[in-house]
């Protein structure tokens, strides 16, 4: 079980053509079409068996980043090694998700853009090493002053949360140690309790420093981008918010998307708790690595006695992949020139966590060491039509002109009067409806900005 993310190595013999080898699968989009649907290419059986996606797995990590134990593929409340109950409350470590290693190739032919994936090395394919991202939103360990990723909920034998006499979720004895939101203890035991919630209203620098205290980071754009590519590969659809459908189509392929079950009214959310988290982390524990949705009842959402039920999604173990909190990412930096400076918006990515850093100032044009330009971004806001074309397979929007159900189906936010460095936020928050999703990108705020809707996930490698 320790080699769950390993990559096989096979050599083509006899000068075989890799394109007809049956050792890869991928997707192709016609850049001139504007469609949200992509075409499956490569080995159809791999599109059915999804071998790379099937290696995505939840586990509990030690504080040094090593695996403490893997969680059962079908139920994260159980350890895989011995079948005993798993401790998700931080006692045994942080809750992490393996993004497995694989080989990747991108190419353009005329108006066709292709992304191809393989478990084995093939000509023109580059190695994508494993990465790790927390499967729940991050919080702070309020005792040891470091970042954490935990689930403080208490579950029954069916994997459903246990509620108290008032219908509120019950929490582990140590939940206050990992209280999220704004860490307000006065709200404990109320409908807006911050126990078990993602930690928000913090700066990128603050979250990054707390993660660095355990040798981790919040530079999760790269892992998130790869996972969203794998989601597009699975569903052959850029519309990540299409309704969830667990039934395979007539060809045995996955269909649909992850739905919009966590989408809520902006006014109602603000009135409820001023945009702080409203779904305790880890609610999908009983799904394990499986894709699915779990209903969660928010007590008194619309006033006393007016409850609201939301559907919390998990794609292959990644809980609430989008449409809940905007996601910080310190491995991605955005630089917007003014029109007078040249009118170019650039996205820079750093692949070495040891070099994750910040610009000298918001307006100093010097690029931090280790960051490399990977994309040119649009200069106006709008729904994405096309994504960046490069050898890395980045999921950044390069051209607008789509809609909620055409093109990339997700929204790009640009500041009308930019000047210098800006923080990227990924995935969209719960009040952004069809604007959020797997490729949504918000590039309006400086790196020092903090808000109740903006949070983080832990990352490794």
In summary, what is this structure?
The chain is mainly beta. It has 4 helices and 29 strands.
Task: Characterise this structure.
With 461 residues, the protein is mainly beta. The chain has a domain at 326-460. It has four helices and 29 strands. It has helices at 44-49, 204-212, 221-235, 266-273, and strands at 24-30, 39-42, 57-61, 67-72, 75-79, 94-99, 102-109, 112-118, 126-128, 131-134, 139-141, 146-148, 244-245, 255-256, 292-298, 308-315, 318-319, 326-328, 332-336, 345-350, 371-377, 382-387, 397-400, 411-413, 420-422, 425-426, 441-442, 454-455, 459-460. It has a seven-stranded mixed beta sheet, with no helix packed on it. Strands 5-4-3-6-10-29 form a six-stranded antiparallel beta sheet. β19 and β20 (345-350) form a beta hairpin. The two termini are 20 Å apart. The model is unreliable at 6-15 (pLDDT under 50).
């Amino acid at each position: 079980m320790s080699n769950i993310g390993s990559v096989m190595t096979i050599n083509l013999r006899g000068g075989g053509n890799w394109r007809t080898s049956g050792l890869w699968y991928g997707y192709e989009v016609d850049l001139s079409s504007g469609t949200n649907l992509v075409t499956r290419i490569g080995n159809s059986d791999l599109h059915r068996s999804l071998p790379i996606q099937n290696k995505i797995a939840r586990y509990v990590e030690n504080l040094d980043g090593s695996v403490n134990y893997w969680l059962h593929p079908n139920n994260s409340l159980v350890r895989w090694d011995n079948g005993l109950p798993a401790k998700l409350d931080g006692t045994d470590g942080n809750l992490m998700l393996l993004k497995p290693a694989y080989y990747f190739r991108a190419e353009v032919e005329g108006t066709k853009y292709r992304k191809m994936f393989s478990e084995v090395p093939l000509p023109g394919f580059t190695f994508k090493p494993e990465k790790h991202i927390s499967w729940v939103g991050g919080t702070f360990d309020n005792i040891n002053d470091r970042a954490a990723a935990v689930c403080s909920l208490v579950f029954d034998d069916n994997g459903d949360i246990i509620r108290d006499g008032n219908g509120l979720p019950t929490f582990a004895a140590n939940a206050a140690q990992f209280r999220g939101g704004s860490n307000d203890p006065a709200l404990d035991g109320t409908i807006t309790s911050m126990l078990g919630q993602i930690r928000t209203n913090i700066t990128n620098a603050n979250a990054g420093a707390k993660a660095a205290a355990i040798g981790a980071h919040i530079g999760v754009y790269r892992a998130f981008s790869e996972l969203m590519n794998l989601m597009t590969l699975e569903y052959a659809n850029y519309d990540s918010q299409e309704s969830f459908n667990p039934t395979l189509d007539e060809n045995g392929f996955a269909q649909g998307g992850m739905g919009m079950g966590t989408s809520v009214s902006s006014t109602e959310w603000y009135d409820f708790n001023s945009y702080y988290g409203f779904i305790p982390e880890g609610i999908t524990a009983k799904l394990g690595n499986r894709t699915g949705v779990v209903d969660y009842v928010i007590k008194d959402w619309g006033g006393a006695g007016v409850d609201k039920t939301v559907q919390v999604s998990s794609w292959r173990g990644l809980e609430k992949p989008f449409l809940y909190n905007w996601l910080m990412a310190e491995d991605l930096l955005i630089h917007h020139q003014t029109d007078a400076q040249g009118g170019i918006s650039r996205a820079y990515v750093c692949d070495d966590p040891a070099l994750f850093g910040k610009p000298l100032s918001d307006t100093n044009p010097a690029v931090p060491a280790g960051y490399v330009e990977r994309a040119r971004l649009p200069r106006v806001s709008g729904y994405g039509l096309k994504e960046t074309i490069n050898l890395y397979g980045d999921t950044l929007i390069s051209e607008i002109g789509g809609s909620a159900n055409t093109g990339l189906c997700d929204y790009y936010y640009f500041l009308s009067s930019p000047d210098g460095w800006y923080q990227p936020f990924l995935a969209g928050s719960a009040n952004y409806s069809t604007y959020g999703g797997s490729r949504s990108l918000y590039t309006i705020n400086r790196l020092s900005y903090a808000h109740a809707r903006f949070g983080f996930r832990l990352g490794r490698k």
